[in-house]
Design a protein that fits this description.
With 171 residues, this protein is of the alpha+beta class. It has a domain of 99 residues: 2-Layer Sandwich (60s Ribosomal Protein L30, Chain: A), CATH 3.30.1330.60. The chain contains four helices and four strands. A four-stranded mixed sheet has the order 1-4-2-3. Helix 3 links the parallel strand 2 and strand 3. It starts with a helix and ends with a strand. About 4% of the residues have low confidence.
Length: 171
């Protein structure tokens, strides 16, 4: 009985001791840095970007399509797109400071990795065709979006045919 009384008294003293600590009285030090100076403003050494000097050529050749369509599961450039490639190659050779991205796309059939690889093959096929026509390799970038950016929604042959493409995008 005596042990229980001591234990109860000890617990009461411990609880009373803990409640007497005032948390708001803890001194707070100001840790703001003093004596720190701002670096002096400097003149930028970066040259300004000069936009295209050739007026009207920002969008590439006028009245020339930029889409090349492919057959199902194919990355062969059809002969019907030869004049399109000729026009873009002529424009690129006349404007050696211009760059293009050839974006390869696929329809939504097939797995993600397969479609990315097929889109890359399509963009590389167009890149090679432009290279054979004399366009410098450093003017062309081949990228693949696979099935991620469909041109036409839907799951029928009309939509799939529009999505199997390579787009020539001027930068």
């Amino acid at each position: 009985m005596m042990k229980k009384s001591f234990l109860a008294l000890a617990v009461a003293i411990a609880v009373a001791g803990c409640s007497s600590v005032k948390l708001d009285d803890v001194p707070v030090e100001n840790k703001n840095p003093t004596g720190v100076t701002q670096p002096p403003a400097t003149q930028s050494q970066v040259a300004p970007v000069v936009s295209d000097a050739v007026e009207g050529s920002k969008d590439g050749p006028q009245n020339v399509a930029r889409l090349i369509y492919f057959d199902f599961d194919s990355y062969v450039v059809k002969p019907e797109f030869q004049s399109l490639l000729d026009a873009h190659a002529k424009f690129m050779k006349a404007n050696p400071n211009r760059r293009v991205a050839i974006e390869g796309h696929t329809d939504d059939r097939g797995g993600r990795e397969y479609n990315l690889a097929l889109g890359q093959r399509r963009s590389e096929a167009v890149r090679r065709a432009l290279g054979l026509l004399g366009v410098s390799d450093n003017q062309i970038e081949a990228v693949s979006f696979g099935k991620e950016k469909p041109a036409a929604p839907g799951s029928d042959e009309a939509a799939w045919a529009k999505n199997r493409r390579a787009e020539i995008v001027y930068r």
